[in-house]
């Protein structure tokens, strides 16, 4: 039977019959539904990039989280449990992915979204932050907040205690990141994971500027490392007695000499120190922190 035969099914299918019209309508409606249900949903279910917010209690983490999420300040309390919120990057902040886009590209006017995870700063609750570092979920960077108005250099008292606590916490975070590289069995380097040391409360008269915060933390981390090294030696274990796995417990260049943040670049961790303030008489100043986030999106 030829397809030109008026009685043939192929001829009927190609002609303007009710069956043909019904099939055509079904196909036209099915294609958009398929694209929406399959392609759109699979794309939208992709995990958003995330940033981890860590630091000692009272450094301003929850206040920053609230400011980033709502665009305004709100009363906060000391965090007892982790909290993750969805945040939109300001359209005025450029992302690394938009570096080569035209200024007229409409996508430049869209808000880039990411997840910001706040973690408790109390010593007994820091395991939440450590777990997030060990098992990251699309983690793009770590923000370590420190109260620049509560630390001091070369003076005894509460200032140095705050500095010691911040340095110990940051030491442990950096050590976990270092282990990512040293524990790998392959020669391939781990994916770069930047760290921002956010020196908060720079609006205060007593606050150290960001460069001095960097110097103070590097010096105190050196003291923390030396103290833990001494504790091991006092236990009767010498450096020559350590196996390769134990040698990796020391942060930086073999655990000797002065520690500097630049040493972390060897394990693909770039540490940046930038100042700002979440609160203040003249309002907040968090532009440098927004820019750092944008540079890692």
Strand order, main sheet: write it out.
Answer: 2-3-1-4-5-6
The end-to-end span amounts to 63 Å
How do the SSEs run, as a string of H and E? HHEHEEHEHEHHEH
Rg from Cα? 27 Å
Structural class: alpha/beta
Poorly predicted spans: 239-247
Number of H- or I-type helical stretches: 8
Number of strands: 6
Give a quick account of the main beta sheet: strands, pairing sense, barrel closure.
6 strands, mixed
Determine the mean pLDDT.
Answer: 80
Please give the share of residues in helix.
25-40%
Strand portion: 5-15%
Shape: elongated
Summary, kept brief:
By secondary structure, the protein is of the alpha/beta class. 38% of the residues lie in helices and 12% in strands.
Question: What do you see in this structure?
Answer:
The chain is an alpha/beta fold and 297 residues long. The chain contains 8 helices and 6 strands. It has helices at 9-14, 18-44, 61-70, 127-134, 158-182, 210-234, 244-247, 287-295, and strands spanning 50-54, 83-88, 113-118, 139-147, 195-200, 271-275. Strands 2-3-1-4-5-6 form a 6-stranded mixed beta sheet, with helices on both faces. Helix 5 links the parallel strand 4 (139-147) and strand 5 (195-200). The radius of gyration is 27 Å and the shape is elongated.
């Amino acid at each position: 039977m030829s397809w030109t035969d008026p009685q043939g099914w192929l001829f009927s299918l190609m002609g303007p019959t009710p069956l043909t019209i019904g099939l055509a309508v079904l196909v036209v409606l099915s294609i958009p539904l398929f694209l929406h249900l399959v392609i759109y949903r699979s794309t939208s279910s992709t995990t958003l990039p995330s940033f981890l917010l860590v630091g000692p209690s009272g450094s301003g983490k929850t206040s920053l989280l609230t400011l980033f999420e709502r665009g305004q300040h709100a009363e906060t309390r000391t965090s007892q449990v982790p909290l993750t919120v969805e945040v939109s990057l300001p359209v005025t902040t450029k992302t690394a992915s938009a570096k080569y886009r035209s200024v007229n590209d409409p996508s430049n006017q869209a808000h880039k979204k990411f997840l910001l995870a706040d973690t408790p700063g109390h010593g007994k609750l820091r395991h939440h932050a450590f777990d997030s570092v060990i098992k990251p979920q699309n983690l793009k960077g770590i923000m370590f907040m420190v109260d620049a108005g509560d630390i001091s250099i070369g003076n005894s008292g509460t200032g140095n205690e705050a500095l010691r606590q911040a340095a110990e916490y940051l030491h442990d975070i950096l050590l976990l990141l270092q282990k990512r590289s040293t524990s790998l069995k392959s020669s391939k380097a781990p994916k770069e994971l930047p760290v921002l040391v956010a020196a908060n409360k720079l609006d205060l008269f007593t606050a150290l500027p960001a460069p001095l915060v960097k110097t103070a933390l590097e010096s105190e981390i050196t003291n923390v490392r030396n103290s833990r090294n001494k504790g091991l030696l006092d236990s009767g274990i010498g450096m020559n007695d350590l196996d390769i796995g134990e040698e990796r417990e020391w942060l930086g260049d073999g655990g000797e000499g002065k520690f500097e943040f630049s040493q972390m670049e060897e394990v693909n961790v770039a540490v940046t120190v930038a100042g700002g303030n979440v609160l203040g008489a003249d309002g907040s100043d968090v532009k440098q922190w927004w820019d750092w986030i944008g540079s890692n999106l």
